[in-house]
Design brief:
alpha+beta, 4-stranded mixed beta sheet, 399 residues, 10 strands
Length: 399
């Protein structure tokens, strides 16, 4: 166990996910890398395990185990496949908007479907022209009777091509109060997907374009009131996005360290294992130290979140530390492997490519540093974890 954070229940869950990932996901990784296509069936199979519902309460069919359990799930999937870890974390962003902003009808309609694996949700905020500048978005929703009519597009949407229910933040008026959020089913007329374009890494995961052309959405699908779009976008990113992406980085980091330790132990130089050379051993020690520090930073942050305590700064730091540590260890791993790290007969080159993808979403490292500076200076504008996080039942830890 990772004392003092994980319980026996968490560790049983870890074994369950690791066993599944090694048996069901690992054999498909070569095909995922070769084809670079979206893994529809595997994404569904993972969802059917019930893990997307880990933070959904039991009254709505979920596991009700909280953010630390969610972290363990994403971490263990990412250790085997960064793409499938990314798939699981992106769906969790879709969960967040309904849990925190959905009305009773929306929760009763969608949360059980998500928990069972029958529905994969997404969240869509980024646009081609505005990027991460949320207030610069131009996709619109215009009220027309009992409907809203959506026009525009969203890009870099996690699970774009496997999602069933898209949480879309669009402009309904001017300024920061002019953003609203809607649940848009993937089979609605006027909704379409851009072509899936393979990327550098995370092969098997889709993060593409959603297109809205006079797409009619019932007003009943609006999340919260008109003007709640900014809180939907920001809170999902802070409470779920940063921790989720940190968990993907952590899983990839674990894989990097395991692979490098194995390689250095197997390879012989000067009549003894490569790992016995002092300069190599120092690099291995640095990697191990970073991994331990990164895990503690993340587990501590989600431990606080599970208890309903203010932890925005800890979540920012967890994302920063995990992303930067995994990238630093990836470089050390390539130094240890040398030319052998460049070829696909070992998985390191995949880990290095996948690790790069986690840098920008939910804020680059520069953004995390700016926000942490504001926290230290006392100029931050409140904490989403204080406003929205509710403690999970303490008895889950020993269940």
């Amino acid at each position: 166990m990772v004392e003092p954070f994980t319980s026996e229940r968490h560790e049983r869950l870890r074994k369950e996910v690791r066993s599944f990932a090694e048996a069901e996901v690992a054999p498909l990784v070569p095909e995922m890398e070769a084809s670079r296509t979206v893994q529809y069936e595997l994404s569904r199979k993972i969802a059917e395990q019930g893990w997307i519902g880990v933070t959904i309460d039991t009254d709505h069919g979920g596991m009700g185990l909280g953010h630390l359990a969610k972290t363990v799930i994403i971490e263990e999937l990412s250790r085997v496949s960064g793409a499938m870890g990314a798939m699981a974390q992106a769906s969790q962003l879709g969960v967040a908007k309904i849990v925190h902003f959905g009305d009773d009808r929306q929760k009763k309609t969608w949360l059980p479907e998500i928990a069972s694996g029958a529905c994969l949700p997404t969240i869509a905020v980024t646009e081609p022209e505005s990027g991460g500048h949320v207030l610069g978005m131009a996709t619109t929703a215009v009220r027309d009777g009992d409907d809203y009519v959506l026009n525009g597009s969203k890009v870099f949407v996690g699970n774009s091509h496997v999602g069933d229910l898209h949480g879309v933040v669009v402009r309904t008026g001017p300024g920061s109060k002019g953003l609203s959020a809607f649940l848009v089913e993937a089979d609605r007329p006027g909704f379409s997907l851009g072509e899936h374009v393979p990327s550098m890494g995370l092969h098997g995961f889709s993060f593409g374009e959603l297109v809205f052309e006079d797409c009619r959405v019932p007003a009943a699908n609006r999340l919260g009131d008109e003007g709640d779009g900014l809180p939907v976008a920001y809170s999902s990113s802070v409470l779920y996005g940063r921790a989720n992406l940190a968990a993907v980085s952590l899983g990839i980091h674990q894989a990097i360290v395991e692979e490098t330790l194995a390689y250095a132990s197997e390879q012989q130089r000067y009549g003894k294992p490569l790992a016995e050379l002092p300069n190599i051993k120092i690099k291995l020690g640095m990697m191990q130290s970073r991994l331990m520090t990164a895990r503690i930073a993340l587990y501590h942050a989600v431990h606080l979140l599970d208890r309903g305590l203010p932890c925005d700064a800890e979540l920012m730091n967890a994302k920063l530390v995990n992303v930067e540590s995994s990238l630093d260890s990836a470089r050390n791993a390539m130094e240890v492997h040398a030319a052998c790290g460049l070829f696909t007969d070992r998985p390191l080159e995949r880990y290095v490519r996948d690790a790069q993808h986690i840098f920008a979403p939910a804020g680059t490292s520069d953004i995390q540093l700016l926000r942490l500076a504001e926290f230290g200076l006392g100029s931050s504008k409140g904490q989403w974890s204080e406003r929205l996080a509710a403690p999970f039942a303490p008895e889950y830890a020993s269940a």
